[in-house]
Structure formats: C-alpha cells, structure tokens
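Q: I'm writing a short explainer about Argininosuccinate synthase for a general audience and would like to include a description of its predicted shape. Could you first generate the structure from this sequence?
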Amino acid sequence: MPTAPGDRRIKKVVLAYSGGLDTSVILRWLQTTYGCEVVTFTADLGQGEELDPARKKAEMFGVKEIFVEDLRETFVKDFVFPMFRANTLYEGQYLLGTSIARPLIAQRQIEIAEAVGADAVAHGATGKGNDQVRFELAYYALKPDITVIAPWREWDLTSRTRLLAFAEEHQIPVTKDKRGEAPFSVDANLLHSSSEGKLLEDPSQAPEEIVFQRTISPEDAPDVATEITIDFVSGDPVAINGVALSPASLLTKLNELGKANGIGRLDLVENRFVGMKSRGIYETPGGTILLAAHRAIESITLDREAMHLKDSLMPRYAEIIYNGFWFSPERRMLQALIDASQNSVTGRVRLKLYKGNVICVGRESPHSLYDTRVVTFEDDQGAYNQQDAQGFIKLNALRLRLGSQIGRRGGSL
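A: Of course. Here's the predicted structure. Afterward I'll give you a sentence or two in plain language.
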C-alpha cells in the first residue's frame, strides 16, 4: 500500500471531484490503493452542469464528507476581475479561462483539508498538461507540508480500455457516451470553455461547428448590432445598461450578449509550461467584451506612462498566471501595482456588438484626462503652445543627429 513521504500512511485525502468518469475512477482507486478515507470537493464555477449527481455518486462510494459549493461570485470577484484589471492575455490572445480557475479550486481544497483534518489532497490532472502544475504549486504555496496524490502519474490505468475495465470491476457507472473515445475534451467555467485533443489535434484543420458550445457562429449572428453600456468603478465592471449587477451576474449577462453576437471564439496553438505546444479552441464571449470595454475606459483615465508601464508588465503577469504562480510573491507585487493604477478607472463605455466584433463607440469618465481644449483643431485659447514643439523635437532628435554624423565618418552606430 502506498504511503506518504517518510512512510507516513495516508488517512484522509480531499479529492477535487467533478463526478465524471475519470474522477469517479480516481475516487475508488484512492480508496482501494491507499485504503484511506476520501473527502470529495465539487466546485460550481459556472461550468453549466448539474452538480447534484456528483453528490449522489460520492454517496454511492460511501463518502461521508461531501462538499459541493457555489463559488461563482468568489471566482469572478476575487480571481477574474483582478486579472482583467491588467487586460491579461497569454501570448497575446488567450484570456486564461482555465488557468485562473485552478488557484481557487486548490485554495478551497486546502481549506477543506485543514477543516476536516486531512493529510493529503488529490487532483485528476494528467501528467502531460499544465493543470497538474497549477494545482500543486497552489497546494504547496498554501500548505507547504501537504501530501499531494496525482493518480495519473502513479497508476497503471494508462489507456481508455484499462480505465473502463477498472470502472466495471468496481461497479462505477459508465454512460454509453463514455465507452467510445470522446471526440475532444472540454473544460468550462463562467469565464470560458476550452476544447482540445482528439478531433482537434491537427492544427491545420478547422474545428467543426460541434466544438463550439458558448457562441453561435459570427455568420449566424444578427444583421443588426446590439448596443450596450458597461459602467466601471475603480477598474471593475459594476453595471450593464445602467443596471447594477453582482460580479457573477454581470459576467453571465455578458456571456449571453456575446453568445448571441458570435463573440469570443479563439483557435490557438499555445506553448504549455511543461514544454510542448498544444492546440485549443476557446470561447470567452463575456470576457472578450469586458476586455474591450476595460481598455476603452482606461484610454481616457490612465496617464500615458502609467498605461505603457502596465502594458509592458502584462505579458509577465499573464505568464505567471498561466504557469500556476497565482499565490507567488511576484504575482502579488504586480497585482498591487495593477490595482493602484485603477483608482481613477471609473466611468461608462458604450459598445456595439456585431457578428463577432466588439466596437467601442463612446467612453466617458468623471476622471477623464481627455481635454478638448488641448486636442482641438480650432483655436485652443492658449491651452497648448504649438511653438513649444520645436524645442521638444530638437532635443529628441539630438541623439539621432549625433549618431548620423558618426556614421558618416565611418563609425559604428
């Protein structure tokens, strides 16, 4: 029987449990392999699935402590919104829908482990993906002495056939659609859905329409634009069309608007932290709208150098989240800087949603730095002296002129 490091026997483990085939097999495997008590934790992050079956399955396996929790508001308020304050995109495109969900699940797992006296936690991430890294980095950051069990790196159930055989041997219900190879795998939460593998592994082939679950095709979207307003307070969205909404309700509404207008599809080949490239199909309808709106309100409320500094740090911040370092000191440091930049990011953005596009058509703020007296082509009444530009240009041209002179004399630049 396997033991924890130091020959310490595992007595109780908290499993991140979806109720699907894989985690059901993991639950029974933990019970039979480690002979330990298993506590299940199922998080509702807005994945759009009924969670009561997960509770019933856990009960069927004799699990005595079952946690099924609605974390949608916490997910959006404490994880999604802070990330969006930075306009975060991994490799210039990906809105990090999977990455940002993992630290919350891990955090709650550790809290439950401490509450029930568990000495281990377990997850169902495979040994090829990023999620194993994200979960385990979070576990160790929050509870350094925790024991982590990663079944996909330990067991010999290395094929679908062996997995199904184990399920049948241990009376684990297997639905008909699980007996054949799934055409692709899906991960979903309130921010996005992600599809990858099998049918989607050839990046030269366009995804079939059956892959898309959160959006209609842009070609099928209405021929008339949908116009909306989004209100921001200190960098976070608080209302749509003047109606105040909670964080989760607001993102839900944006998802509905994005879906109806074919917004938020992405076909991406990305660089995984573990070293390989992978192809994923992402749908982030509400997040795509939110990103455009947030950039629009920042455009009139942020100082130029503050905005440029923030934009220069964003790729590093995105990489930190993608790689699983949400609870790292460097992420917290960057978050403090990002949050400080948002004090004046308050106002209203007007958008048109049309056939996959998010078009900003207006923005206003009580803290706007946009001054018509300065930018006008009409008489500016002395607000800007155009003659000042001459010295400004000459000073900035000085190094270019000196470099050119050296070059003409045969020197290096």
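A: For your explainer, you could say: The longest helix spans residues 388-408.
Q: Perfect, that's easy to follow.
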